[in-house]
Each structure stands twice: as C-alpha cells, then as structure tokens.
C-alpha cells in the first residue's frame, strides 16, 4: 500500500515581494520516503507539477526495481535478453560507463553477491568463502550488452541498479518540475537530494555512529547523496557487514563508515557516493578530486572515533 502523507501548501513572499506558494508533499517510494518541495507564483500549476513529478518517480520505481514482478530489471534477469524501456536502457548504459570510470569497484552486476550476503531479504548471513569465490566470477559488467533497444545479459550475470536508480529518478523529477515552470525546489528520495533555483537550501548529513547530524550543508542548485554502513547492515563476531559489496573480493566494503558526495546531478552524487564507499578514503579522495565540480565528505572510523576527510567543492 502506498502511504500518502499530508500535502502542505504554504504562502509566503518571494525575493521581489511577489506572493509565492510552496507545495510540500511526502510519499513512500524507492524503499524509503520521497519528499518534494516546490515553489512558484501559481499554486495550481505548482501542485500539478508536483503530482507529475511523483507520478514519474513511481513509474521509475516500478520499472527499475529488483523486487517488483514485471519490472524491466526482474524480467531482464529472468529472460536474459529483453527489449527494455528507454529509461532502463539509458540507466544501464550510464551504469556501465560509470563502472568503467570507477575501475570496476562499481558494478551493476553485483546482484549475486548482494543476494548471497542476504541483503535483499534481510536474511543477513556470512557466506562461506568458496561460495564468495564462485559468485565473484559471475560479477562482470562487461557481460551486459546494449544492442539497439535490447539489453542482453551474458552467462549467469544478473543486474541490480540500486546504486544509481534513486539519483536517476531524482534528476528526472527535477527536470519535470523545471519544465512545468517551478522556480525553485527540492526533491529528496531517502536522503538522495537535489535542489534547484536561486535559493540556498540547508541539508543535514547524519552522523554515522550517533543520533543527529554531523554537518549541515548549504546548497544552491546542486545534488547530494550519502552511502553509509549504518543504512543496511548486520554484525557478527564483532564485525559490521554492510550492503555495499566490493566486487573485487566479494566482501562488504569496510574502509568507510559513510560517504557524502555533492555533485551537479543526483545521478553523479548517487554513483560517486557508492563508488567512493568501496574505494575508501585514500583512493576515493583521488576519484573525487579528478572530477571538476564535485565535493565529498568521507567518514571512516579510526581508533574508535569518526574521522572526516573533506575533498573538493562542498558548499553552495
Ligand atoms: P547506495 O545506497 O546508493 O550506496 O547503493 C547501495 C546499493 O547498490 C546496494 O543496496 C546494492 O543494491 C547496490 N550495490 C552494492 N554494492 C555495489 C557495487 N559495488 N556497485 C554497484 N552497486 C552496488
Ligand atoms: Mg549510490
């Protein structure tokens, strides 16, 4: 069931004394919440734009989900060769290109490993090392081929777009709001956020080991995403195992507690936060520093306390 939270309509004065209306609506989606705040002079138009943006996010959630029967991803994993929707194809293409850019630490075919560690159904368990070695052979993004409108999967490869799907959907929602005339706004899908317009928005970053925030960012016309080991994890033998897997060894990545990336688009923020989380602070900072316009806060636990590494352009 889809839970719809109350829609708030606020009226206030904008920059030039003009009456502005804000629609603030939250729904469930992408396994978490989606909040859209949109501002403009015409309340009705802003309201319609917000409904359209939500509809698009619902559509993409269904299309790209690993857990919805009939989604492009579920069908492709079962049928191995599939004529997919344009958006699915575009995201797979991007996922492959980004995987290449990250030198294989980001891999959209990580599905068999994430499944073996029990993160899809919360059965969380440490697989035996022979299983990990065997499943690692099945993870290889080069076995995914896009041929015209069709995507073809090589032998025993399965895809999971979870590392980038939310960012992609946030960008699509922002594009709809803008083309519908919304002047400024924010789309937040479970912490993957993009803000647009002239206004500066304050966005909090959760502390990876305590209640509350570790930082508050001021952002104008940018996106931010966080990958953290506190989001989905289990502990065994005093060790923490979290949902982002290093495809090189098949084990959950352990070098970071959290990575927040600030980027021009939500897709980039989503991708880089996951990739840097696998790489760890040292190599991760190099990857971020190579991209103009990107910033990151990389958190790791050293000697029991949280250490912060700031890289690149992080504010506004
Ligand atoms: P995020 O929360 O954006 O960091 O994405 C985490 C999700 O991406 C996981 O729940 C998996 O579905 C998927 N994933 C895990 N490890 C990887 C990886 N190395 N490359 C790409 N996707 C991954
Ligand atoms: Mg991500």
Biggest beta-sheet profile: 9 strands, antiparallel
Helix-residue proportion:
25-40%
* Apparent shape: globular
Order of helices and strands: EEEHHEHHHEEHEEEEEEEEEEHEE
Account of the protein in words:
- With 316 residues, this protein is of the alpha+beta class.
- It has helices spanning 43-64, 72-79, 86-101, 111-116, 129-136, 165-179, 266-289, and strands at residues 8-13, 19-29, 32-40, 81-83, 144-147, 150-153, 184-189, 192-196, 201-206, 213-219, 223-228, 233-236, 239-242, 245-246, 251-252, 258-263, 295-302, 305-312.
- The strands form five sheets. Strands 1-2-3-7-8-11-16-17-18 form a nine-stranded antiparallel β-sheet, with helices on one face. A three-stranded antiparallel β-sheet has the order 4-6-5, covered by helices on one side.
- α1 (43-64) packs antiparallel against α6 (165-179).
- The site of adenosine monophosphate (AMP) has 17 residues, from α7.
